[in-house]
Design brief:
The complex is a heterodimer. Chain A is of the alpha/beta class. Chain A has helices spanning about 40-50, 90-95, 100-105, 110-125, 140-150, 170-185, 195-200, 220, 225-230, 235-240, and strands at about 5-15, 15-25, 30-35, 55-60, 65, 75, 155-160, 190, 205-210, 210-220. In chain A, β9 and β10 (about 210-220) form a beta hairpin. Chain B is mostly helical. Chain B is built from 16 helices and no strands. In chain B, α7 (about 135-150) runs antiparallel to α10 (about 175-195) and α12 packs across α13 (about 220-245). The radius of gyration of chain B is 21 Å and the shape is globular. Classes of the chains: A alpha/beta, B mainly alpha.
Chain lengths: ~240, ~300
């Protein structure tokens, strides 16, 4: 269940090739890390799966059928620096967005929906902060707001774009335990990350991406110096020193 | 004193103007909130310029100016939508260049005709005092359609403005919805034309929503305030115009600007005055409104940087 497969997926922005001929399988009930250099297509791959980038060649399938995003529950946690924190939203508003798919076009949130939002905030240690504006949280708390939003979606697929960048220990631990929970419920968890140590620690599968697919498979087999060198080019020295 | 308020109402043309500006204000306030939240102010400006040759062409050919404006505006909205689809590159410069040119074409078409100055003045600056019942009926009909669509799609428009990726992954047709919003903006520009003019529509579309954003952090309150400020400034502008005998659309545009500047100065949280006072009192405000990244960077300091 929840096995995601990409078959010969390519994406072009104008003349720039962001992704070329990517074919891979991402199993449900496990964590898949996407690693690669900046501009290597990590975020683009996530946006292809999310359905934001639609102008693609190739196909994205879930369990052998074309991925239908109005039926599949796909959670998305953006990079913190891509978020417009000035947007007039309270914590409650932001988490409620996780129910967008269920609410459809016009249904108003019910008491039960509101209760679920508050419960999700509570779960992430932000109980009683429903009415606070999203800019009034610390960096770690802001990341937890988006995790609460993912949690409330009861997702089949979880997309995390650089979730660990610049976070305190508490929030990292929270993310790890939530990821475990998603995996336990059979979801395919996909995370793009710069943090190779973290990926090695928590990911079952690794995808090495540099516009083309360099390698993919179980972490132990794929996380080799050779693959990393081919993914990052000469810059692998930075990783070795870290 | 009370006559200052009641006097204008004794004239039927002023009654019609008050009604017209209220309808327009409600619609521009709502659509403007989406425009500001989605960061479309510049594209709104481009649409406004692109509409102008359509207006002129319709006038020359003897068609309804709204029709000409809508065709040109609609085509432009579609073009902007398609051009920005799935692209990372910002097309700001291209939009700026092309629509300045569009506008110039309109001006040349007007100037090639005799007696152009009166026409161009009314197309560019509107003439709300010359509005008749039929105009009001058309405006009301179109405004109702726009407001209904805006309210029905409110949550989805907000979702797209804040997080396109989640909107797409939740199964919404993001691209078509963005086109719909551009078309609503176009329609709003079109039915506001006769009253407020081609150029000053922007002051009703962007300024009230921007002022509302400064006044509150709450989404629904911001939208409601934007509508109230837009309609309210319209009415105040009309009073000023009546008593001082100056341009109505100019007065309305300046009334919205005055509200914006007042909000900027005195808003409870984001206003300059309250920030100065907070600073004087040495209050540590937890608010990160103006430096959202600072905190994260400090927290992230010492973390391994990307290779």
């Amino acid at each position: 269940m929840n096995t995601l497969s990409l078959d010969r997926v390519s994406v072009r922005y104008d003349v720039i090739r962001a992704l070329e001929d990517i074919s891979l399988t991402i199993p449900g009930g496990s964590v898949t890390g996407i690693i690669g250099p900046n501009g290597g297509g990590k975020s683009t791959l996530i946006k292809v799966i999310a359905g934001e980038v639609t102008d693609i060649d190739g196909v994205v399938q879930l369990d052998g059928a074309a991925l239908d995003r109005s039926r599949t529950r796909i959670a998305y946690v953006p990079q913190a620096r891509e978020v417009n924190w000035d947007f007039p939203l309270s914590a409650h508003d932001l988490v409620m967005m996780g129910l967008s798919r269920d609410l459809g076009w016009i249904r108003r949130p019910s008491m039960e929906d509101n209760r679920r939002v508050s419960a999700a905030l509570e779960r992430l240690g932000l109980g009683g902060m429903d009415d606070r504006h999203i800019s009034q949280f610390s960096g770690g708390q802001q990341q937890r707001l988006f995790l609460a939003r993912a949690l409330i979606q009861r997702p089949d697929i979880v997309l995390l774009d650089e979730p660990m960048t610049g976070l305190d220990v508490t929030t990292r631990e929270t993310i790890h335990s939530l990821i475990d929970e998603f995996v336990g419920s059979g979801a395919a968890v996909i995370l793009a990350s710069h943090d190779l140590d973290e990926v090695r620690q928590i990911c079952d599968e690794v995808v090495c991406l540099n516009r083309r697919l360099i390698a993919s498979g179980p972490t132990n087999a794929t996380f080799t110096p050779e693959n990393l060198r081919r993914t990052f080019g000469g810059r692998i020295a930075v990783f070795d020193a870290a | 004193m009370i006559e200052l308020l009641t006097d204008p109402w004794t004239y039927p043309f002023m009654q019609r103007a008050f009604l017209e500006i209220t309808i327009i204000g409600i619609a521009t306030g709502l659509v403007g909130a989406f425009v500001v939240l989605r960061g479309l102010a510049f594209i709104g400006d481009a649409l406004i310029h692109a509409v102008f040759p359509g207006l002129v062409l319709a006038t020359i050919l003897g068609y309804d100016i709204m029709l000409g404006a809508f065709i040109f505006g609609g085509a432009t909205a579609l073009g902007i939508g398609l051009a920005s689809r799935n692209r990372r590159v910002s097309h700001d410069a291209a939009i700026g260049v092309i629509f300045a040119a569009f506008f110039a074409v309109g001006i040349i078409m007007v100037s090639a005709r005799r007696g152009y100055s009166a026409e161009v003045t009314s197309l560019l600056f509107g003439n709300i005092l010359a509005i008749d019942e039929r105009d009001i009926a058309i405006t009301a009909f179109l405004a109702l359609a726009v407001v209904a669509a805006g309210l029905i799609f409110k949550r989805v428009f907000i979702l797209i403005a804040f997080d396109r990726t989640l909107a797409a992954s939740s199964g919404y047709p993001v691209f078509r919805l963005e086109l719909l919003l551009l078309l609503l903006v176009t329609l709003t520009v079109v039915f506001s034309l006769q009253a407020i003019g081609n150029l000053l529509v922007l002051s009703l579309l962007v300024t009230p929503a921007a002022a509302a954003r400064v006044l509150t952090d709450r989404l629904n309150r911001m939208i409601a305030l934007s509508m109230a400020i837009s309609a309210g400034s319209g009415i105040v502008g009309l009073y000023i115009s009546f008593h001082l005998d100056i341009s109505a659309s100019g007065s309305i545009a300046l009334a919205t600007t005055a509200v914006f500047l007042t909000a900027l100065a005195f808003a409870p949280q984001h206003g300059y005055l309250s920030r100065i006072l907070q600073h004087r009192r040495g209050e540590h405000h937890e608010h990160h409104f103006h430096e959202p990244h600072e905190h994260r960077e400090i927290e992230g300091a010492g973390e391994s940087r990307s290779p």
